[in-house]
Amino acid sequence: MHQDTSTPRPAAESEWDLFLQEVIREFHCTTGTLHRLDPADRHLKLVAAQAIPPQLIPVIQSIPVGKGIAGCAAERLEPVELCNLQTDNSGVAKPGARQTNVQGSLAVPVMDGARLCGTLGIGKMEPYEFTPEEKARLLQIAGRAAAKLLPAG
Prior knowledge:
The structure is a single chain. The protein has four helices and six strands, in the order αββαβαβββα. The chain is α+β, with helices and mostly antiparallel strands. It has one domain: GAF domain (Beta-Lactamase). It has a six-stranded antiparallel beta sheet. Strand 5 (104-112) and strand 6 (115-124) form a beta hairpin. It is globular and about 35 Å long.
């Protein structure tokens, strides 16, 4: 495995990158993001990203709860899905999200019991409607990661 050594990465970030790669593979997706909730400012802070255009990384580094697909999943504490992000007019997706070329997208809250820890998002390059079983599976995977995502509070 080739690792980019231009920017030092903490070991925990590498674990999250591997976790995200496994999730993307399981759901036959192309892109993915994992954010950790920062309770101090109620922003989702990027922990890991896969196949996100470099110009969007600064935009998704810190997402306010309630903004964008991940922010809406965090605010609603439930999965947020867009069958086709490229043509969606709901206002959920931020304009820059279209730069990913993702169409079918799903973000779920990462929950530790009733405590929001972050969000997990995946995307496909074609329009796609995730099944209730896929949404439940992604929530289950996110829940297993929750305990490690936030320090005990």
